[in-house]
Amino acid sequence: MKKIFCLMLTLMMAFGGFGNVFAASPDIKLSKTERMENDIKNEINITRKEIYRQLEQQDALILMKVYEDIIYPQIERQIRAEYGEEVNTSNGTSTLMATSSLSYYAPNGGLVT
């Protein structure tokens, strides 16, 4: 009886240790592009809420589209650069973005740095 009990305990310990080895993280299933796109969407959603909150306090919601046109491409370029993606520049060439200070011209005039 003791031999059977010891054998059962040994098998349970041996096979019990394999359970965690075969578990896969859900992040492994997402490709680099999917993770990058998710990061861009998340960051834009956070930024959209913050811009809306600030413009609402200033009673300037009419400017929401202008800020979206300026800031959203900047967020996308920054995240793509973090993932090492090539980004198309305004003159049509593609380059790897460096983390440096850039200036952005607003569609209806103005400058944001």
Separation of the first and last Cα atoms: 79 Å
Which segments are poorly predicted (pLDDT under 50) over 5 or more consecutive residues?
Answer: 93-99
Rg calculated over all Cα atoms: 26 Å
Largest sheet: 2 strands, antiparallel
- Which strand order do you get reading across the main beta sheet? 1-2
Strand content: 5-15%
Helical content stands at 55-70%
What's the assembly state of these chains?
Answer: single chain
Estimate the mean pLDDT confidence: 76
Number of strands: 4
Encode the helix/strand succession as letters.
HHHHEEEE
Please give the count of helices. Answer: 4
* Class from secondary-structure proportions: mainly alpha
Brief summary:
Helices cover about 55% and strands about 10% of the residues. The protein is mainly alpha-helical and about 110 residues long. A two-stranded antiparallel ribbon has the order 1-2.
